[in-house]
Amino acid sequence: MLRLKVDENLPIELVGLLRGAGFEACHALDQQLGGQPDHVLAEACRAELRAIVTLDLDFADLRAFPPDRFRGILVLRLRSQDTESVLSAFRKLLPSLTEETVVGKLLVISESSVRVRGRSD
To answer: Domain coordinates of the chain in residue numbers?
Structure first.
């Protein structure tokens, strides 16, 4: 089962959407990870074998966060970052969201596409 950690910069409603779709999901704020540096959040995800879901473009830096060292990095690049836009983007992504499509990869998610970097590059 794909396990995900939703970053503090995303709405808590995303956790509910992911859980409702059968994923094991938690929010960074539930684990007192709010305000922590990126590397702290990244290490928590690695220790818990969770993919990270974030708006933070720093996680798209392949040198700083090599995808093959993580259970997956999902970075949202949306024109609007309000709750409904985030949920809408994820509703489109859910049917293809599996360990195979995420583990060891960076997914950059926009309203119209998903770019994948990682193991298949």
So the answer is: 3-118
